[in-house]
């Protein structure tokens, strides 16, 4: 029964990795670069939520906010930061240097934003881990002898519904078709009438939304936030994305869940110290046996959505 409990815990943790892995997948498959700010957007959502729930709005505009309002504001902050990154990693750089998607400018500038945002959070809130004032009651239910926290279960359902909605949008809406066209061939998409300056921000809005949701759900479910919280989540989300297959949305879902299960089962059998070895060992084995991942394609960054 304890093993089944760990599997359930792994599924719940995996839902967080899934959300961040899908955010990585969107930027790689559509814009063909690794957005280093994604773990920081996750962290911004969690830390801003905590700050608003503990201190309230800046400049004394309000007292501490209720935790649902604080989480919503944290997610909005993540989206705004993501749009700021888009403005200066793509729009400005492309205007000055041509097609910035063909070289390392977006990658390096996104790394700069990662460091800036992370250190701004440290300046405002300090470097220590903080307890998030979430639901006051335990909110744990027992299903067939398995203990499940209701916020975790709700979070899992929300994540799955969001991913299904994203997949539907990519296949059946005009914006989704535009994003897929840019992923296939940016020049041809422009000739056919797709406007990158209107479509590309959508990618960053979705990225900010996914990371904001993941950060908010993590704060509620695990009750702790810190300026460093994005690093571990981000690295394991990348591992999940690669295991599932670069550029595949369903691959990111499968990979994130697999990483969550591997982590919890490793803790169960070998202890927490072996988690990194198990996760990255699984990644290396996957690359050796199937370099494109479980659901990936051979042409990285082109036409996987």
Automatic annotation (TrEMBL):
- Gene Ontology terms: biological process: D-alanine transmembrane transport; L-alanine transport; L-isoleucine import across plasma membrane
Membrane-protein topology: Multi-pass membrane protein
The alphabetical list of record keywords is: Amino-acid transport, Cell inner membrane, Cell membrane, Membrane, Transmembrane, Transmembrane helix, Transport
- Matching Pfam families, A to Z? BPD_transp_2 (PF02653)
Q: According to the lineage, what is the superkingdom?
A: Bacteria
Q: Which InterPro entries match?
A: ABC_transp_permease, BCAA_transport_permease
Query: In which compartments does the protein localize?
Result: Cell membrane
What's one GO-annotated cellular component? plasma membrane
Q: Which residues cross the membrane?
A: 12-34, 41-59, 65-85, 105-126, 146-170, 199-218, 238-262, 269-289
- Please give the Gene Ontology molecular function terms for this protein: L-isoleucine transmembrane transporter activity; L-leucine transmembrane transporter activity; L-phenylalanine transmembrane transporter activity; L-valine transmembrane transporter activity
**Where does this protein have coiled-coil stretches?**
none
- Similarity comment: Belongs to the binding-protein-dependent transport system permease family. LivHM subfamily.
In Swiss-Prot or TrEMBL terms, this protein is called: Branched-chain amino acid ABC transporter permease
Q: Which organism is it from?
A: Pseudooceanicola spongiae
């Amino acid at each position: 029964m304890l093993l089944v409990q760990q599997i359930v815990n792994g599924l719940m943790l995996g839902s967080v990795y899934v959300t961040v892995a899908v955010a990585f997948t969107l930027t790689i498959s559509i814009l063909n670069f690794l957005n280093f700010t994604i773990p920081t957007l996750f962290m911004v959502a969690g830390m801003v939520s905590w700050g608003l729930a503990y201190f309230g709005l800046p400049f004394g505009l309000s007292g501490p906010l209720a935790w649902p309002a604080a989480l919503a504001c944290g997610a909005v902050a993540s989206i705004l930061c993501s749009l700021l990154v888009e403005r200066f990693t793509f729009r400005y750089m492309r205007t000055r240097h041509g097609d910035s998607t063909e070289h390392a400018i977006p990658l390096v500038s996104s790394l700069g934003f990662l460091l800036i945002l992370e250190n701004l959070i440290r300046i405002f809130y300090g470097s220590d881990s903080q307890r998030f004032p979430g639901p006051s009651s335990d909110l744990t239910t027992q299903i067939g002898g398995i203990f499940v926290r209701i916020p975790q279960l709700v979070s899992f359902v929300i994540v799955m519904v969001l991913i299904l909605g994203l997949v539907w949008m990519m296949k059946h809406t005009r914006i989704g078709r535009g994003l897929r066209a840019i992923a296939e061939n940016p020049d041809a998409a422009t000739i056919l009438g797709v406007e990158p300056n209107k479509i590309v921000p959508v990618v960053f809005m979705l990225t900010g939304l996914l990371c904001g949701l993941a950060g908010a759900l993590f704060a509620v479910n695990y009750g702790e936030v810190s300026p460093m919280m994005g690093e571990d989540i981000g690295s394991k989300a990348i591992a999940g994305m690669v295991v599932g297959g670069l550029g595949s949305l369903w691959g990111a879902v499968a990979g994130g869940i697999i990483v969550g299960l591997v982590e919890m089962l490793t803790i169960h059998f070998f202890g927490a110290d072996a988690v990194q070895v198990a996760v990255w060992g699984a990644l290396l084995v996957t690359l050796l046996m199937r370099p494109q991942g479980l659901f990936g394609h051979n042409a990285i960054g082109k036409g996987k959505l």
